[in-house]
User: Fold these one by one.
Assistant:
Number 1:
Amino acid sequence: MTTVQAPPPSAPPPSTSSPSAPPAPVGTLPAVRPPAPRRRSVPRRIQVITGVTVTTLALLFGSLAVGSAAARDGLRVIGRDAGPQVLATAGLYFGLSDMDAQIADALLMGQGYGERRQEALARYERRRSEADDALMKAFELSGDDPAERRTVQSVLDGLGRYERLVGQALLLDSQARHPAGAPPERVVAVYRQATDLMRLVLLPQAYNLTLESGTIVRRTYDEKSVVVPALRVVVIVTGLVALACLVWLQVYLARRFRRVFGLALLAATLATAVALVAGASVLGQDERDLRAAKTQGFDPVLNVARARAISNSMQGDQSRYLLDKVRADTYEHTYLDKAQTVFYLPAGNLDAYHAAVTASRTGYLGLMGDRLGGQDGERTLSAYQAFQRADTGFRALAAAGRADDAVAARLGEVRQAFDTYDGALVALSRGHEDAFRRAVGDGERALDDLWRLLPFAIGGIALLILAGVWPRLKEYR
C-alpha cells in the first residue's frame, strides 16, 4: 500500500512594512505633509514687478513724447506757418493802402512838385512789388485751403484792375499839366474808381486773409494752452509712479536676496528722475514760450501792423480830402473813423477828437490802447499827438480857402509828422518781433535738446533695469 505524503505548508509572504513602524490605529487618517516651497514663485514676482515698472516708464516717455509733439506743433503754427501768414497779409494791407496814398499824393502834386512826384511814383512801384511778393507768400502759406487761395487770387485780379485805372488816371493827369492842387474832374473821376476799388474791395479782402489766418493761430493757441499743461501733469504723475515702482523693485530684491541695493537699479532710478525733471521743465518752458510768442509777440505785432496800415490809409485820406472836393466831407469822416480805430477817444467830430488827443496822455482804447507802456509806447503817443496837431493846422488852411498853403502843409509838415509817427510804430513793432522770434526759437531749441536726449534715456534706463534684474533671475535657472 502506497502512502502519499502532503506538501509542507508555504511560508507566509514577507511583510512590506517597516518592523519599527507600528500599525496605524484603526479609524485614523494618515498624516499630510506640507508641500515644498515653489522655487518659481520668486522669479515670477520679479517679472511682474519689472513688467509694471517698465509699463510705467513707457507711459512716462510716451506722455513726454506726445506733450513735446503738441508743443512743437503749436510753435510751428504760431511761429512758422499761420503766424507768418498773418503778418504777411498785414504787410499786404499796408502795402495796398500806401499804394493808393502815393497815387493821391502824385495827383495832388501836379506839375508843382516834379521831383517829389517822381519819388511818390517810385514808392508806389516799390509798394506794388512788395504787395505782389506778400500775395505770393500768402498763396504759398495757404497750403491746400481753397477759400484762402480763392481770396488771394481775387486780390491779384483786383490789383490788376486797380493798376489799369491808376495808369489811366496818371496819363490823364500828365496831359492836363495842372499846378499843385486838385486835378481836373476827368482825372478825379478815374481815380475815384481806383480808390473805391482799393478801399471797398481789395483792402477788405486783404483784411479777411489776416482774419482767417489769425483764427488758425488763436484756435491753435487755445488748444495747445490746454493740452500741453495737461500732458505735463501726466508726465509728472507717471514719472512719480515709475520712480515708486523702481524703488519697490529694489526693496523687494534687497529683502528677498538679503543684499544691498544694486548699482544698476540705483542708476536707473536716478536716470528716470533726471528724465522726469528735464521733461517736465521743457514742457513748462514750452508752455511759457507759447504764451510769450502769442501774447507778447504775435498779438502786439499784428495790432501794430494793423495800426500802421490803417494810419497810412488815414494820411492818404488827407490827400484825398484836398484832391476830391465832392467827397471832402466823406474823407474827413473816414479819417476820424480810422483815427478812432487806432487811438480811440470818445468824440463826435474831428475837431473834438483833435482837442481830446491834445489833452490826453492816458485813457486810450483801440488797437494801440494797450501798447502805450514803456519808452517806445510813450514815443509813439507823442508822435501821434504831433501828427494830429499838424492835421488840425492843415485843415484850418483848407477851410480858410488857402488851397495852395494847404497842399504845401500836407506835403510838408503833415507828411513829416506822419513819417515820425510811422517810424515810432516801426520801432515799437520791432521790439515785439524780437520777443516773438526769441520765444519761438527758445521753445524749439528746448524741444530739440529733449528729442536728442530722449532715445539715449530710454535705451540707457532699459539696459540698467535689465542689468539689475537679470542676474537675480539667473539664480533660478
Number 2:
Amino acid sequence: MKTLSVMEGDSVTLHADVSDIQGDITVIEWMFGAENTDTVIAEINRAANINTVDERFRDRGQMDIQTGSLTITNIRTTDSGLYKLDITGTNTGVVKTFRVTVYAFLPVPVIIRNTSQSSSSSESSSVSKCVLQCSVVNVSHVTLSWYRGLSLLSSISASDLSISLSLPLEVEYQDKNTYSCVINNPISNQTKHLDITKLCQSGLSLLSSISASDLSISLSLPLEVEYQDKNTYSCVLNNPISNQTTHLDITKLCQSGKLVRIQLWADNRKDSI
C-alpha cells in the first residue's frame, strides 16, 4: 500500500507504475472505499468498449488509458480513503492499493486575553500577569501549540472532525520574549504571533466577573466608583475565541459628589463578563 497526503483543492495522481498497457489487457478498474465495500469509480473495459468515470469524480477524475494512472483534480476532504487499482488481462494481473489523506485549509489561530484569569498581583508576586487564550474552531487532525521563540511550551491535538481547540498561556506584561501560536497538520501550518503590549495592558486588574453557560441568559455585574476616580475601567464580554469591550466614562455617567452603582448588562449571551 502507498500512502499519499494532499491539501484540499490540489490535484493528486495515483500512479499505476505500468509504462504501457499491453494489448492483452481487457479491464482496468479503479475502486474507492473501505475494503470489501469499495465502489468502481473509473473503468476501461476494452472488450465491452466501456470507458467511464463515476458521477462523483466525473468532472475531476481522469484515467490515463496508456498507463492506467488516475488523476483527481480539486480534491476534497471527503475523497480521503482507500483506492484500489485492478488490471486484468489474458496473461496479466495487477492489483495496487493507495491510502489518500486530504487535509483541509488551516485557519489562522485567534489569540485573546482571558480577563477572567488574568491578575495584576498574587500573594507571592507583585508582577503583572496576563493569561492568554489561543483558539481555533472547526478543525481536525491538527496540533495547536504555543512557542517561545523556537521552544515548544505546550500543545494539544485533535483527531476528530470539526472540533474546537483552545490553549492557555500565562505571561508577564514586561516579558520581552517572542511568543507564537501555531496550528499544523502533517503538510501545512498557520502561525499567529503574540503582541504582548497590545493584548496585555500594564496595571490592568480584574475586579469582578460572572459567567454563563446557558443559552439566552442575561448577565448583570455591578461596580461602585467615586466621581473623582481617575482610574480607567472597562467591562469585557468574552468567550474562548473573541471578546467585546466597553470603556467606562465616569464623567458622563456619574454625577459630582455622589457614589453611583453602575450596572453592566449583556443580554442573551452565552459568554462571560
